Recover the amino acids of this structure.
């Protein structure tokens, strides 16, 4: 019977090819970032850390990096503030909240460039212009569905009797949330927040329309840099970021467990 | 007297418990549910719905007659061609993602290989990496002096291939961006099919292929449809990859919108293009609700 679950050799070979395809561009970026020539060439001729120094001392990148980090953190926090209550209401709402769920999750499969363009002119019309507030609001629109979806998936699997028991034992709604619900939804909240942060941090199609000189986000700065120069410092920047992301995943796996990391896949 | 008091307290407590339980049977009460939903709904109305409505209003007026921008899109051969190209790109990338993604999703759901975990990791990792970085990688791979062309030159194959600033490079890079979504959608739907069904078919004498074609494939089609529609919608709205890999040579609706806003400053026309994109996406979504009954969760 165990033979039944073995996949045929050609399938395994095909999957191996696809894995190579999926990882190839990432590996190339990592190799290019250690390349000691200014020209983008592969395979690299020699090893250097020069591009890391270059990227992390280029003032535009540093400023954009700090701004993007702050923006992503704030957007994630605000998304959690309005997303978690919504997820709890939808989760226990039965059929009546199905329409609201679809509405809240709509930005996930929405062409974001349409949102970016319309927001640009909408903000102009209501007097927000290119203010950072508008940029933040736009980022909350695109990050909040990730929080709602992750928390929703976890909370739906939670036994409602646990919260019911807390209520019957006299816990106030706030205490019930702090001591019972929050610990139970923590894996969903953590994985949702990581996703929300990354989605905000990497966003281009909305940010590119809403940033001005002093509110440039990192990917927008990189894009305009790529238009004029094409050197490996961009590769170095993203290699450093990849290391940070993988480290973050590792920390999450240690603290919250593998389930929430693999739950990232359902959140994506 | 003491006994009576104790009893009333007991009764009192019991009725309180009953009251609470009755309130709880509704899940969270209706009023508090509305209160919990109010912030997000108000927020999305202000910053998601209102801008889109504003875009529709702006796209309908301007350029003279009512709806003139839309007339321009469907009568001008250039814009019509961009529209058709966008649609064809969406179909092409989706078909490739289905054909390549299905076997991989099947592998993740059904294989007991010890490499399975690593395959899952390889599928998830690109999703956590910025699209700018992935496009950068493809430029290094597919460029005139890139890995692929150096390799072809080294083995004496005809080349160099011009893959950048052209459709083939854009398709390759977009498949790379959206393939993981398709693989995960297929893996989740096949994972949800009880393996006993396949085992029963094989016990009854069906070959592996027949089992696959008659049992697994039909049961997984809804999930494939859901994944395909997601890939199609994301592809026709794709922007960064096409901008970096195709440039001006592969015009699609999102790039045209960017151009209209950035260099021409014609918002009404950009909004009209955006709405055409939205209508296409909504049309596909409508087809989904029509033909795919049970929605697989991707």
């Amino acid at each position: 019977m165990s033979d039944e679950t073995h996949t045929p050799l050609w399938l395994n070979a095909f999957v191996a090819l696809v894995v190579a395809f999926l990882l190839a561009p990432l590996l190339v970026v990592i190799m290019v970032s250690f390349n000691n020539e200014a020209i983008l060439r592969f395979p690299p001729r020699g090893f250097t850390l020069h591009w890391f120094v270059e990227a992390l001392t280029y003032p535009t990148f540093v400023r954009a990096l700090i701004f993007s980090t702050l923006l992503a953190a704030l957007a994630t926090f605000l998304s959690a503030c309005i997303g978690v209550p919504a997820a709890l209401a939808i989760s226990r709402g039965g059929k009546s909240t199905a329409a609201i769920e679809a509405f809240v999750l709509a930005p996930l499969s929405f062409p974001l460039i349409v949102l970016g363009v319309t927001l640009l002119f909408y903000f102009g019309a209501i007097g927000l212009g290119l203010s950072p507030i508008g940029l933040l609001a736009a980022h909350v629109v695109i990050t909040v569905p990730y929080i709602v979806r992750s928390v929703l998936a976890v909370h739906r699997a939670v036994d409602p009797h646990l919260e019911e028991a807390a209520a019957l034992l006299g816990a106030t709604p706030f205490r019930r949330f702090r001591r019972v619900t929050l610990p139970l939804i923590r894996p969903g909240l953590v994985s949702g927040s990581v996703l929300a942060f990354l989605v905000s941090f990497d966003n281009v199609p909305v940010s590119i329309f809403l940033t001005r000189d002093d509110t440039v986000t990192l990917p927008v700065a990189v894009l305009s840099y790529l238009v004029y120069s094409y050197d490996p410092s961009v590769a170095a920047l993203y290699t450093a970021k990849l290391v940070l992301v993988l480290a973050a995943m590792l920390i999450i796996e240690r603290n919250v467990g593998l389930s929430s990391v693999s739950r990232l896949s359902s959140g994506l | 007297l003491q006994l009576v008091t104790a009893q009333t307290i007991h009764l009192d407590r019991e009725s309180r418990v009953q009251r609470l339980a009755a309130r709880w049977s509704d899940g969270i009460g209706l009023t508090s549910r509305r209160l919990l939903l109010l912030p997000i709904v108000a927020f999305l109305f202000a910053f998601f719905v209102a801008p889109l409505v504003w875009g529709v209003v702006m796209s309908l007026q301007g350029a003279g007659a009512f709806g003139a921008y839309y007339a321009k899109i469907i009568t001008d051969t250039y814009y019509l061609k961009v529209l058709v190209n966008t649609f064809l790109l969406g179909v092409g990338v989706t078909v490739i993602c289905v054909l390549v993604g299905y076997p991989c999703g099947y592998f993740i759901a059904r294989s007991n290989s010890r490499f399975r975990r690593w395959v899952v990791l390889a599928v998830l990792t690109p999703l956590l990496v910025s699209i700018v970085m992935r496009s950068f990688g493809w430029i290094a791979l597919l460029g005139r002096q890139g890995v692929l062309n150096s390799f072809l030159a080294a083995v004496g194959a005809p080349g160099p291939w011009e893959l950048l600033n052209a459709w083939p490079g854009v398709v390759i890079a977009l498949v790379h961006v959206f393939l993981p979504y398709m693989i995960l959608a297929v893996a989740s739907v096949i994972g949800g099919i009880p393996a006993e069904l396949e085992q029963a078919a094989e016990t009854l004498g069906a070959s592996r292929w027949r089992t696959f074609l008659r049992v697994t494939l039909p049961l997984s089609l809804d999930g494939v449809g859901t994944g395909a529609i997601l890939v199609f919608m994301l592809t026709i709205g794709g922007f960064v990859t096409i901008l970096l890999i195709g440039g001006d040579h592969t015009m699609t609706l999102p790039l045209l919108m960017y151009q209209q806003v950035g260099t021409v400053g014609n918002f009404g026309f950009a909004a009209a293009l955006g709405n055409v994109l939205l209508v296409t996406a909504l049309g596909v979504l409508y087809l989904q609700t029509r033909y795919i009954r049970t929605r697989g969760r991707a």
About this structure: The two ends of chain B are 65 Å apart (CA to CA). Chain B touches chain A through 94 residues (CB under 8 Å).
